[in-house]
Amino acid sequence: MLDTGSCLWVDGVGVLFSSSTIPEGRLELPPRGSMIFRLSSPQDRKQASLETKEALKLAPNHDRLAFLVKLPDLLGIRCPPPIPEEHAPLTWDEVRLMTKAGVEFGAHTKSHPILSRLGSLDEVREELSGSKRRIEHETGLPVRHFCYPNGHLRDYTPDTVRIVRECSFLTWSDIYLSTASINCRAGVYSHAMRRFPNATAGTGLLTMTHPFAAKWASA
Question: In degrees, to the nearest 5, what angle opens at C-alpha 91 toward C-alphas 200 and 106?
């Protein structure tokens, strides 16, 4: 995301729906099939966006990517809307400034796919190791921690966990891991670390992060 200046695909779906001006849309959603959404109000568009994102998280990755290419036309959008500040990625210069101030960055894949929906283990390996290598190249620091995209138990497999270990991550995290599950499945979760919801969700974490980077730059 940092290399392209684009936002996460889930955020991009929300931006597209919020920018649509058509009153109703029919979408062929993998794997759910044809669905008709009301889009006449901000609340309608928000609900349609949420349902679309949740459906796409269950789709094979190649189907998700193909659908996202078509989504602007399906929503009647001819010119891509600008990325809102709260969804804009950091720049590598900002990342380097933050690491100098003591912030440690972990890996989160190259393109934020749902790892269990990828077509091969080679794709999983490249998403993990490629993300790790890129951050290490830009910061000159080891990347020791990994966080699963979306983070539900259905979003990764035992093979995914094995590849995380092969990539030499010290820890990994999802959003539902409990102490009990770690103890009961120590062979799988021996490197697990609990992931907590962002307390600033809804206020735009990146909206605050960019000014922090600017502050460190002037310090």
Answer: 60
Q: What is the DSSP pairing of strand 171-173 with strand 145-147?
A: parallel
The DSSP line for 68-134 is HHHHHHHTT-SSPPPPPGGGPPPPHHHHHHHHHTT----B--SS---GGGSS-HHHHHHHHHHHHHH
Total Cβ atoms within 10 A of residue 164: 23
Residues 135-181 pLDDT 10s: 999 999 999 999 999 988 899 999 999 999 999 999 888 876 544 34
Q: Taking each helix axis as running N to C, give the angle between helix 42-57 and helix 9-19, from 0 to 180 degrees, rounded to the nearest 10.
A: 150
pLDDT of residue 210: 47
Please give the C-alpha separations between residue 184 and each of 152, 157, 180, 181, in angstroms, as whole numbers: 18, 17, 6, 5
116-138 per-position pLDDT tens digit:
999 999 999 999 999 999 999 99
Q: What are the two backbone dihedrals, phi and then psi, of residue 215, each rounded to the nearest 5 degrees?
A: -65, -45
